[in-house]
Amino acid sequence: MRPSWRNTVGIAVLVLGLAVYALVVMVIGASMVPDHALVQLVFFAVAGLAWLWPARGLLRWMARGAPDAP
């Protein structure tokens, strides 16, 4: 069984999107978050979980594709 085109596109978007998201979070964390350990912990914990919401939608979109017929 070959993977569908949705899987290929979805994985590429997920990897590139997560890399861009991580860079944006690092820049925001370094420039805008105060130098207090508890504030940084909360910010990075929330930011670390926030990407799961759009990733879930992307994974659902990937799974929705019909399997290729043999």
Overview of the structural elements:
With 70 residues, the chain is mainly alpha-helical. It has one domain. The chain is built from three helices and no strands. α1 packs antiparallel against α3.
Q: What's the helix and strand layout?
A:
Layout (H helix, E strand, L loop, with lengths): L4 H27 L5 H14 L1 H13 L6
Helix pairs in contact: 1-3
Q: Outline of this structure?
A:
This protein is mainly alpha-helical and 70 residues long. Helices cover 77% and strands 0% of the residues.
Q: Which features characterize this protein?
A:
70 residues, mainly alpha, 3 helices, 0% strand
The proportion of residues in beta strands is under 5%
Overall number of strands? 0
Largest sheet: none
> Low-confidence stretches at least 5 residues in length (pLDDT < 50)?
none
Please tell me what the overall shape is: elongated
Give the terminus-to-terminus CA distance: 8 Å
Report Rg: 17 Å
Q: Which structural class do you get from the secondary structure elements? A: mainly alpha
Helix amount? over 70%
Order of helices and strands: HHH
Count of domains = 1
Mean pLDDT: 89
The helix tally amounts to 3
